[in-house]
Design brief:
- The structure is a single chain.
- This protein has seven helices and no strands.
- The chain has 192 residues and is mainly alpha-helical.
- The chain has one domain (5-147, 167-191).
- Helix 1 runs antiparallel to helix 3 and helix 3 (37-50) packs parallel to helix 5.
- It is globular, with a radius of gyration of 18 Å.
Length: 192
Amino acid sequence: MHGPALAGWLLVALCAANGSYCLLRMRSGVDEQRRWAGTEALMGFGMAAMAVPAAVLSPPRWVWPGYAALFGTVALYTAVRSRGAAYRAHRTHHLLGMLVMVYMAGAMAVAPAGDHGSHGAGGAPLVTGALLLYYAGYVLWEGGRLLPLPAAAGPGGTGTVTAAVPWGDMTELALVCRLSMGIATLAMLLAL
């Protein structure tokens, strides 16, 4: 992506950390945690690779159609797999996320040689604007879900939790992961 190298490396680190955590969630004993963890991990690592600063690595042109094909296939898989599944809003967001990856890869593929997605080089402004609005709203909504709620009183009235929850099963961390991926997507769309 075009922009300061430090911002690119921070995006790489953020997305790679999210991808790694999503791999950990794939081993969870909770079905809700495992359901989308694989595709979220793929999206995290894919975004990390896309965010590598152009000054460090400018991939050949054939890489971007490959990205578009990979994420298009995963979008199709997500659409087929999620038919009739619960959590309609989340599965729609997943499908949109995969299609955004296809869109960004397509924009980079049509960018002039060496630009690696420079400002104004790729993407339709109307589509990019609509995606920016969606992701800005998503980030605000997901961030609002992380606001602390009063502790519910347990049977003893103390409101404390007695059992430790494994890392892969913490729903708060999954929300943070989705929030940070939304912020990273927003940043990448701004740089498109």
